[in-house]
Every structure is written in C-alpha cells, then in structure tokens.
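queue> pop job 88
queue> type: inverse folding (structure -> sequence)
queue> payload:
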C-alpha cells in the first residue's frame, strides 16, 4: 500500500512468462529464433477521503504479449554481419469500477454511485534491424554500426534509429565500450485507451512514439570464463515526448495526480 495526502493505493500484480529459443547453422552463418509469451494482471485500488465523502475506484488491467524473433549472423575474417526482426503482438484490457460513498456523522449513507467501464486495445510492433561489425588494430578495436527500425500499427509510423558502438580490448580480460543510439518507444498502452472511466474509445491511437538519445560507457573485467564484473555509466536525453490530447489523468510523465 502507498499513501499520499488523502489518498491510499493498494496494488497487486501477477506475471507469468514462457518462452523457447534455438539456433541452426545455415549458409555458413548462424540462424536464431525465439518465441515468448507473457501475461501480467494488475489490480489497483484507490481510496480518496474528503470531508463528508469517500471516493473509491478499482482499475484492473491485463497485459498479454506474444513476441517472435528471427536473426542471422555470419563472420568472415574481420567483418561480422547480422540482421533480423522481432514481431510483438499485444492485447491490453482494462476493467474500471467507480464507487462513491457519502458519509453522515462518520457513517456511510447507503446511496452508492457506481460506474463500470471496459476497454481493450490490440496493437502490434515490427522491429527489423541490421548490424555490421569490424575488428581492426590487431583486433584490439571493434566497431559496430547498425540501424534499427520500428513500425507501430496504431499510429502507422515507421522510424529508423542509428546505433554506434566502439570497443577497446585492453587485454583478454579487460575491455571498454562506448555506445550511442537513438531509441524509439511506442506510447504506453494505458495512454492509448484514454480515460479509464469511458468505455471502448481510443483517443490517442495516433499518438507518436517517444524518442530519445542514449549514451553509455561500460567497463568489463573477466578474470575467468565463468565470472565477469561490469560497470556502466548511462545517460538519456528525451527530445520528443508527445502529450495526450485527451482529458485524462493518465499522462506519460504524470501517471496519476493526487488531489
């Protein structure tokens, strides 16, 4: 439970994940595949107490995802090539119960005001990618350059994100890496559904993806084959963050504003 001002939140969550993967040698390279499914159920109970009345509502959400991916990679001399794609199907549903109780002399009056709304959204995301890696400087240096795409079915937008990675192998046990990448993230599914108390609408289905710049510096020390220590510094700059035009408290950066 979590409390702030005159609000109390009770939160329960259950998650299940099941997956499989494999790899084969094809055309002098390695073909990999993976499939995974996850199911998450969240139960939020909100209580707001004011002078003379109490507002209670329950927001139950179910988030099911099925992800399939396939990739191929091959290394010839100092050059490594890999490409692949990931397809993810979503089904997100919400049951919202609204309940108002009025109090008189600290005793509830049996005149409840109740509303129930149900809504679902079922988008999918396709993410193809291509990467080229080169060893140079007597294989002490390794440079990766890649491009990552994302197509989101709801806003019908296709984005391309370049990614760079430079690694210096100081020794067989120690290496340093610097990575720079643009990252695109689809809008949260709860935001797409709009206000939870209105049934079967999707006012933000054309909402654009969130875009950010990521920079990371990593050091890895591996004293043995079975043990490694990794330290990393990471920074993120969000340069495009569309806001919901719907009149809803479920925004991206301010998920819930307590009264």
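queue> result:
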């Amino acid at each position: 439970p979590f409390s702030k001002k005159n609000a109390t939140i009770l939160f329960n969550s259950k998650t299940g994940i099941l997956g499989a993967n494999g790899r084969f040698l094809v055309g002098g390279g390695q073909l990999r595949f993976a499939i995974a499914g996850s199911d998450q159920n969240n139960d939020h109970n909100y209580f707001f107490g004011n002078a003379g009345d109490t507002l209670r509502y329950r927001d139950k959400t179910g988030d099911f995802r099925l992800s399939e991916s396939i990739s191929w990679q091959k290394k010839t001399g100092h050059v490594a090539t890999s490409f692949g794609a990931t397809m993810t199907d979503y089904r997100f549903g919400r049951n919202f119960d609204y309940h108002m109780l009025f109090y008189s002399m600290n005793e509830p009056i049996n005149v409840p005001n109740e509303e129930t709304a149900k809504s679902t959204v079922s988008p999918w995301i396709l993410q193809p990618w291509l990467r080229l890696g080169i060893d140079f400087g007597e294989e002490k240096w390794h440079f990766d350059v890649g491009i990552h795409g994302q197509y989101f079915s709801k806003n019908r937008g296709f984005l391309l994100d370049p990614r760079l990675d430079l690694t210096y192998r100081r020794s067989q046990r120690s290496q340093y890496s610097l990575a720079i990448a643009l990252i695109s993230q689809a809008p949260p599914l709860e935001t797409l559904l709009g206000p939870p108390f209105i049934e079967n609408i999707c006012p933000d289905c054309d909402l654009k993806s969130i875009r950010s710049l990521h920079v990371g510096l990593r050091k890895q020390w591996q004293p043995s084959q079975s043990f490694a220590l990794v330290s990393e510094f990471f920074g993120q700059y969000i340069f495009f963050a569309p806001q919901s035009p719907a009149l809803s408290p479920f925004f991206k950066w301010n998920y819930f504003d307590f009264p």
